[in-house]
Amino acid sequence: MCGGCESVPRAGGQSAGGDRVLVPAFPVEEIRVYPLTHFDTTEAGEPVVVLHFELLDAFRDPLKAPGRLRVVALVPITPSGRELRNALSWDVDLADPAVNSRYFDTATQTYRVRLGQLSGEVVAALSGHGPGGESGFVELGVTFDTTGPDGDPSSLRNRYVLRAEVQDG
User: Fold this and answer.
1) Does residue 61 surpass a pLDDT of 50?
2) Is 67 buried (19+), middle (13-18) or exposed (0-12) by CB count in 10 A?
3) pLDDT band for position 23 (50/70/90)?
4) Are 56 and 35 in contact (CB under 8 A)?
5) Beta strands of 104-152 (E only): which ranges?
6) Nearest-5° angle of CA 51, CA 94, CA 113?
């Protein structure tokens, strides 16, 4: 058995073969998009969204966990911003411990993921040139699929509104 893990029967009870699954003693209970999330450009000039998110246990302490991250960018289609449409999505596999650790920023205790290949409408909304003008935004829908406290699959969700960054002058 691994440190920090416990063995629990699979849902539906224990089978005759003793089918048990290892689950973390402190499972992920919440995902939260962290306010460090921002619109940026790479050294090569490519626009990106730098997503910072944290996984929290029942005591609201940050932790690492394997899983799959899914992000959807919703852009306004009207100046009021009341109507949104799915403009882009990303999938990041964080099941492998080595890959997972590369995305984890120990200084902030958050995962830091660069989301690239932005569509023109996402860039326009985040640059203040979309339907909302200078008050433009992109809503990020973030889902993290992992193993829940009972050993069954769990999907954690959070939303974050990323506001347009308008340059003066």
Assistant:
1) yes
2) buried
3) low
4) no
5) 104-105, 110-115, 137-147
6) 15
